[in-house]
Input
Amino acid sequence: MTVSEDGPYVNGGTESTESSTVSLDDGDIHVCQDGPRDAPALLLIHGSASSSRSWNPMVPLLTGSHRVIRIDLLGHGRSAKPADSSYAIPDQARRAGAVLDRLGVEHAVVVGHSSGGVVATALAEERPGLVTALALVNTGPSLEAFVAPESDPSGLSQWPPTGEQLRRFASTGFSRAGYRIPEELLDDVRGMTHHTFTATMRATRSYLEQRALPDRLTVLGKPLLVIFGEDDRRWRSSSASDYRVVSGARVELLPGLGHSPLLEDPPRTATPLTAFTALHSARVD
Output
């Protein structure tokens, strides 16, 4: 496993974003880093059919006190998209842990958006000594909370989908119709293969079918923050209360925001997140 420097990543959170590639046995993983390297580590994990770019608006709000690390999960963004690798949630979590190891990170608060929160949970299960606390942003606790979409690109015979098909699919990721969807988010879907798109969607469903997230998190006993846009059109926001079975869990509902509060209102999303990370981050000696 090696790390190669790609130089500044202009499309990242800031002009000082450091971009690199971590080579793993089953595929290269693209990594972005911002903030002081001696600050507590904060790992941000994107959702399905997205990439590290989905966190761009949040990064400047977090780097004042953290070393912010973003990865493109295998099959997404600038990471490799092999047809013969596993996209199962535990394997995605293993790769995230391997990246942190290679970067010399011994402890991190891990934040996941949507299915990225599922990967974050799996990482805490596999590497409890590495993950100090978890924050889940609009991550459905179980399949019972899922709102079936009217259109799903995975069933299309044509790949990539047309711009109109992509916009119709992506529109449920926001609180209101007519929201101007960032073009780079549509590009993230176009950049996937049909195999990686369908495999990652199936992987999330399979993991939630095996056991609901609150049950997994109760056993782990990690500090937990749950942030949910109250007008989510993909997961019932009322299901956020399911996480209250986790001892000490903090649940924050954000009125007027949908499935992607990190894009719709970064400051409002960052407020509870920064308060939470201030309590549970471990400073590098």
User: Anything to note?
Assistant: The domain at 2-280 is CATH 3.40.50.1820 (Rossmann fold). The beta strands are 2-8, 18-24, 27-34, 41-45, 67-71, 108-113, 131-137, 224-229, 250-254.
